[in-house]
Design goal:
about 100 residues; four-stranded antiparallel sheet
């Protein structure tokens, strides 16, 4: 790979734009880009090697959601794989 210099245009993931965009090299450390500037939104950030950050998982929100589901339908939360064998309204009217 060729040597990176200040002002070179490279691709990187922009956290503000949330996609891989063109960036200008702002800072170089040990012949590697250290900081880059997005050429779309002009946001400066560390060079991420074109890797998107992992998605954030809100464990508290997920725990509350599971708690609400278990209160609404405790039998479904305990065994979600059981098929529903009750008759529907349409089948009751026909009989």
């Amino acid at each position: 790979m060729r040597e990176v210099r200040l002002g070179d245009v490279i691709d990187d993931f922009c956290v503000k734009c949330k996609r891989i965009m063109n960036h200008s090299v702002v800072s170089v450390l040990n012949l590697e880009p250290a900081k880059v500037r997005c050429r779309t939104c002009y946001n400066d950030h560390d060079y991420r090697h074109e890797q998107a950050p992992p998605p954030k998982i809100n464990t508290r929100k997920q725990a509350l959601f599971n708690e609400v589901l278990s209160k609404l339908q405790p039998d479904v939360a305990a065994a979600p794989s059981e098929p529903n064998t009750e008759k529907t309204k349409a089948s009751r009217k026909k009989s």
